[in-house]
Amino acid sequence: MVAPTASASSFTRQLGGLLLSSASSSSRIAATARIASTFTSLLSVRHSHVGSAPLDLPTSTSIEILPFPPHPNPSRPLLPSQRHARSVLVKGPKGEVVVPLHECIVLDSSNEKRISLSIKDDSQKKQRGTWGLTRSLLANALQGVSEGHTVSLKLVGVGYRASIETDPLPRRSKLDIALAGSKSFFLSEAAKQAEIDRATRAQQAVEKQGPNMRLHIRLGYSHPVLLPVPYGIQVQIPQPNRIVLKGADKEQLGLFA
């Protein structure tokens, strides 16, 4: 057996060094690529394509920022995350809608025909989510008070049918119940008065349309199902098995449907 010469041993060491150097270079390149990919993804998620889109104000609509959050049920306290929020009152020919404006949201209404939203800290995931949600709620409110929202329902079943009739029973809203009770959870007197004024305007608009109505639905039970129509929602029955709901508040419309 012939022993390897000095030149052969030197060549082997050099080749091994090159292989190690190549492997370490590949590892460094892969690590750099991973870091760059992570950094790029972090930058991309901090931009909300929904929240950053401006909103155009339709004709005959207006917005007003109130220094307190909306309180849909004054008989119950607000959540801690909502107590420091504000409200955006959106008005139009179809009615009024109140949208919560959280503390982290900055609304720019310097342009009379367009509004834009931003957040205080775009590194916070929760703020980015609230950013897009608030923009969507404002878009729905602007469309609702200017054009209105429509939901169509179809009754599928043998003998299923619906009709609309006058509601003879008295009604009490959540605001009326809170004011009549011994305790309410309004954050301030200004918030209380604003809710009373808004409820008064809504009641006056309803009285112009006529008496309170309710849905009379047959769904296969031994008795009919009677559903009082909430304030701010109009009901049409074009066919016995088809119900069309219209209103300015998309959330209220969806809850009733």
UniProtKB/TrEMBL annotation:
<dbReference type="GO" id="GO:0019843">
    <property type="term" value="F:rRNA binding"/>
</dbReference>
<dbReference type="GO" id="GO:0003735">
    <property type="term" value="F:structural constituent of ribosome"/>
</dbReference>
<dbReference type="GO" id="GO:0006412">
    <property type="term" value="P:translation"/>
</dbReference>
<keyword id="KW-0689">Ribosomal protein</keyword>
<protein>
    <recommendedName>
        <fullName>Large ribosomal subunit protein uL6 alpha-beta domain-containing protein</fullName>
    </recommendedName>
</protein>
<dbReference type="Pfam" id="PF00347">
    <property type="entry name" value="Ribosomal_L6"/>
</dbReference>
<feature type="domain" description="Large ribosomal subunit protein uL6 alpha-beta">
    <location>
        <begin position="86"/>
        <end position="148"/>
    </location>
</feature>
<keyword id="KW-0687">Ribonucleoprotein</keyword>
<dbReference type="InterPro" id="IPR000702">
    <property type="entry name" value="Ribosomal_uL6-like"/>
</dbReference>
<comment type="similarity">
    <text>Belongs to the universal ribosomal protein uL6 family.</text>
</comment>
<dbReference type="GO" id="GO:0005762">
    <property type="term" value="C:mitochondrial large ribosomal subunit"/>
</dbReference>
<dbReference type="InterPro" id="IPR020040">
    <property type="entry name" value="Ribosomal_uL6_a/b-dom"/>
</dbReference>
<dbReference type="InterPro" id="IPR036789">
    <property type="entry name" value="Ribosomal_uL6-like_a/b-dom_sf"/>
</dbReference>
